[in-house]
Amino acid sequence: MDKQARGRSRLPLAGLVAIVAALVPVGSASAVPPFRDLGDNTPFIEHAWVEFSGVEFDSQFTRVAAKVICPVDDFDPGGGSTEPCRARVGVTWFLEGKGVKGPRRGLAAPRDMVIERGASEHYEVRIPPNDLRNVLARAGGQALVGIGSVDPDTLYLQSNETLATPTFTPAKRTRWNSCGVQSFLRVAGATLLEEIRDADGKVSFGPLYSPDIQILTRYRVVKGTARFTLNGLRHELSEGSEFSVWCAGLNALHRGKTFPTLQLDKGAVRISGRPSTKRQFAAVVTTQEGLLGSRSQERVAITVTRNKGRRVSTLRMHKGRTGTVTPLLQHLGGSPCTAGKVLSVNWRGVIRPA
Fold this sequence. Notes:
With 354 residues, the chain is mainly beta. It is built from 3 helices and 23 strands. It folds into 2 domains: 3-164, no CATH class; 184-353, Sandwich (Jelly Rolls).
């Protein structure tokens, strides 16, 4: 196999970038792409071809790291070129979809690298959300992200390894992911881990590098108190808590129409304030035992705790008139919990004073 054939076989986005190249021609007045690609017709430039291993990236693409290798040609009896690799390495992105406005491809956090043959260098970058994540969000989930190398002289894209399709913007809107909650919420005051699922569905936790949390992702507070505001409601989660932001519905509120809530897996959260949008029907925390909180848009101050081992959730109503504890499988009714009262509910749905 010749070098050019090997180069083309390692470009999994060849078909896509050929379409992108046709849609956004190089030199267009609206936006000049940071690299050129002609699909299978892109010339192979040996000094700009590198390989990647140990690639790491977070769910919002605010941190990307990889080992960049300048390969030795094992197919050439003479060892191939001795010229060092000279390439512009960066995070490649491609946007699809008819409604996308602006550039459809780009190279984030580019770094010019010179690497001797057979050697490697570490590439690690932190990318501000405005530089990549928010750009990808424009595509409504129709995007691809990779790590690649560009010839700094001709700007032809050479090696490119696909990383993922962003999942923080759902490709299809449903009542469970589009209920009036922002896609990203700025969090402060704590160190968090975020849930990671690999290709086999195995769940683990890794560092949260982004300054924001996102809907439908589980987080663990490992240090400090995590604070964020959701539609006028201030949330404070204690150290050790595990939580996510999602959409839930109650038959007692707008006939079950979903609205933003906090899912508490363990730990404690204090919520205070008054909903600032019409879609924030109340201040509610969901757990595996029930739905705990207010049932109106009144000003509240509540604390919800969950003992994961005992499978018991508790509501402390500091301020508010419509506090209620509703067992998980009993959406139509519940027990009132007005200011100054404390109620708990267990996994059997039994409610009692705490």
